[in-house]
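Hello, quick one for you while I still have it in my head. Could you read through the record and tell me how the tokens relate to the sequence? No rush at all, and the record is pasted right below.
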Amino acid sequence: MGANEHGVCIGNEAVWGREEASDSEALLGMDLVRLGLERADSAEKALEVIAELLERHGQGGNCMEDESIFTYHNSFLIADRKEAWILETSGKYWAAEKIEGK
């Protein structure tokens, strides 16, 4: 998880589903968090950055430094001072929903 100078905050959590997570080289969830924070000045822009990177490069790779293979998909919470989004992912696929509230 992290935050940037524009007040954009992103957190991620490992998720598993029916589709197998790829163990080939691709972006890890933490790569997507870092790149979203680096390139976005709003929550909506961070969502766009992460979605575009997922579609182009996918996600995967070994999430452990030892010899075991540990892979997963990611769920993200992306927020700034004005809005928040939930982003669910599976491989190169994603779905997002804006959080509505007071």
